[in-house]
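Prompt: May I have another protein with tokenized structure?
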Amino acid sequence: MQELIKPKHLSAGDTIATVSPSHGLAGDANVRWKYDLAKKRLEDLFGLSVITAPNSMRGSEFLEKNPQARAEDLIWAFENKNVKAIIANTGGNDSIKLLSFINTEIIRNNPKIFIGYSDTMNIHLLCYKVGLSTFYGHNLLYTIGEANAFHSYSEKWFRKTLFDPSLIGIIEPSSDWTFECRDHENENRNASYKRNYYPNLGYELIQGSGIVTGRLIGGHTEIMELENEKIALSSEDFENAILFIEDIPEFFSPKQVGNFFIWLGIKDFLHKLNGVIIGKICESGGSSEHSNAIRKVCGEFGRSDLPVLYGLNFGHTSPMFALPYGAIAEINCEMKSFAILEAGVI
């Protein structure tokens, strides 16, 4: 994997821009309360100045029909010298349409923090291709703007990863978590609806032994649908890497997870990887069938030795930590632990 440029760390008083690269939900009338809630938290908890990209709050209908407007927002945020960081309002399924409208030299010449998860992966991979390390982590609406509160675990890792230029270190599992549906429909739910949280049992070692390190690469399972796109990952990108992967339940059944590992095997990526970490599955059922599918496929491709650690707090569940693309990470199979061995920012 290539060496990536680390962005500068955030400090109180800095400006963060909010963008909608995947979906325009944040600007819909019945969701705007959630945007306002998250914006205030960024201001109150971190001392950030929050500004809205010009097109990002024009609503779902407009932004669905106008991918160029979404791309213009991203370019605007990278070019704006006052903006120190960029955060995606939410995920979706449409950011792939932005790629043809983005001048990648603008990203290359203006490295800064960019953070989000889910469909935002496509923008992360675009940044990766031009040499910038970005962060698969907190979206604005569904992490920072959760009606319950900004979960203390999510807040801790947002602060540590983006504001602190020292080594990130061991990332312990959260004490609790939730898979329940996210709240966004109307302002009344801000007061009346709260997601239930449940005890978190920690990380599960699916297979492997010893300690392995590697540079972080990944996202969600649609990564295997990008082979004809300019952001497609090559064999070199998987060389000695630690792959992080997660997805929503509709695309993360045991069969689908098995198919994903089959794809890794067929492409010969499985043999190049040093390890895999998997985000918690966004449903109440256990992970045993997924684990069995992974072990079966790995065995068929001669990778029963590959360390695979499940149940990490990133992706579509709450709370979460953030993963910096290209950073060196460690899986310790004996301790069932995960660590990021360098800083995410400078």
The chain has two domains: 15-167, 176-340. Residues 204 and 310 are 5 Å apart (CA to CA).
